[in-house]
Amino acid sequence: MNKPTGGYRWTIVALLFFATTINYLDRQVIGLLKPTLETEFSWTETDYSNIVMAFAASYAIGLLAFGRIIDRIGTKMGYIISIIVWSIAAILHATAKSTFGFGVMRSLLGLGEAGNFPAAIKSVAEWFPKRERALATGIFNSGANIGAVVAPIMVPWILGSYGWQEAFIITGAIGFIWLAFWWYMYEVPARQKRLTQEEFAYIHIDDAPEQVNAKPIGWGRLFGIRQTWAFILGKFLTDPIWWFFLFWLPSYFSTTFNLDLKKPSLPLVVVYTATTIGSIGGGYLSGYFIKKGWPVFRARKTAMLIFAICVVPITLAQFATNIWQAVALISLAAAAHQAWSANIFTTASDMFPKQALSSVVGIGGMAGSVGGILFPILVGALLDSYKVAGNLTGGYNLLFIICGFAYLVAWGCMHLFAPRMEPVQVPAPEPQAVA
């Protein structure tokens, strides 16, 4: 069992990786076009914050809805619906004629993109044993970073060659290419003809027998479980930090260090390349601890504490005297976030049965999005006030201090609600009466 025959499960990870890459490519386009669109539509920082909030609000609703939908209709169809909606929404940004129009399109994009992570996390739980889930999650989650690396190269080139409308159209259309591969190649292990019996047995090596045919858990009951709140608080306190990195880092480098966003941006490429290393390395580290004989909960929590500590040095960005000092500090923090993300998603699959996993991921993702709604209010108001005072960099410095300590607070909350990350026990289905 230690060396299973066959590796089709890694093909599934590749599909999830490319979907997540496209997801973040489409999401980040507006951040890179922000200076151009600010001039075109006379946006203030508060206007832009409202657009980000529109995305976050719809993303929150979409996560809750898709989590439940995917648990009911399955990962294959759930992913298909998700990527069709978000790809169409990404393309329709090119038709926006006002700030309100962009808000509407971001809302539609948020609804569609919300299906990515509930479907991907459930796919990993279906295709991998616990010892490999963090690594598999880290690999597909690194697609977020690759998307963020590709975007600063691809979007400025399209902008300079064709215009901002074409940037939305071209990037949005990529999702339909992925859709064809997903339709042809994906199926759950029990129905996947390309899967060997040995690999199928390995995938299910640590499934709990009492949970194989467990009943789905309703939302009401999920909110009454301590482990759900551990995941909710972990996501609520840390997801907004990543969104801040995505939507405001280009503007930060532009205003603080005069980075020209109409050209390929090497500092942003470096930052998001570092996050790729963090995502895969973070997934590997907890898996390494498990292979060394550590209990699963200890391996996950130790890894996550290390990553939380690695974010703290971003508070020193205020003392950076050149762009590369800032890049180094932000790269470490962003990489640590992705390492944290790979593990926090895996804690959900450690604690909850597969029948409820997408719902839990959706609930936690919704909480992260609510944080993503609230944090931009602070960001926009803070940056506008500092801009009026002529010290926009000071606003960013204060925000970096908040970012630096968010993960330690989140780790403490998760430990309080789920000290040993005990698996949630669900009742077996009642026996059917024989007529």
UniProtKB/TrEMBL annotation:
<feature type="transmembrane region" description="Helical">
    <location>
        <begin position="395"/>
        <end position="417"/>
    </location>
</feature>
<dbReference type="InterPro" id="IPR020846">
    <property type="entry name" value="MFS_dom"/>
</dbReference>
<feature type="transmembrane region" description="Helical">
    <location>
        <begin position="51"/>
        <end position="70"/>
    </location>
</feature>
<keyword id="KW-0812">Transmembrane</keyword>
<keyword id="KW-0472">Membrane</keyword>
<feature type="transmembrane region" description="Helical">
    <location>
        <begin position="269"/>
        <end position="290"/>
    </location>
</feature>
<dbReference type="Pfam" id="PF07690">
    <property type="entry name" value="MFS_1"/>
</dbReference>
<feature type="transmembrane region" description="Helical">
    <location>
        <begin position="302"/>
        <end position="320"/>
    </location>
</feature>
<dbReference type="InterPro" id="IPR011701">
    <property type="entry name" value="MFS"/>
</dbReference>
<feature type="transmembrane region" description="Helical">
    <location>
        <begin position="229"/>
        <end position="249"/>
    </location>
</feature>
<feature type="transmembrane region" description="Helical">
    <location>
        <begin position="167"/>
        <end position="186"/>
    </location>
</feature>
<dbReference type="InterPro" id="IPR050382">
    <property type="entry name" value="MFS_Na/Anion_cotransporter"/>
</dbReference>
<feature type="transmembrane region" description="Helical">
    <location>
        <begin position="77"/>
        <end position="96"/>
    </location>
</feature>
<feature type="domain" description="Major facilitator superfamily (MFS) profile">
    <location>
        <begin position="12"/>
        <end position="422"/>
    </location>
</feature>
<protein>
    <submittedName>
        <fullName>MFS transporter</fullName>
    </submittedName>
</protein>
<dbReference type="InterPro" id="IPR036259">
    <property type="entry name" value="MFS_trans_sf"/>
</dbReference>
<keyword id="KW-1133">Transmembrane helix</keyword>
<feature type="transmembrane region" description="Helical">
    <location>
        <begin position="357"/>
        <end position="383"/>
    </location>
</feature>
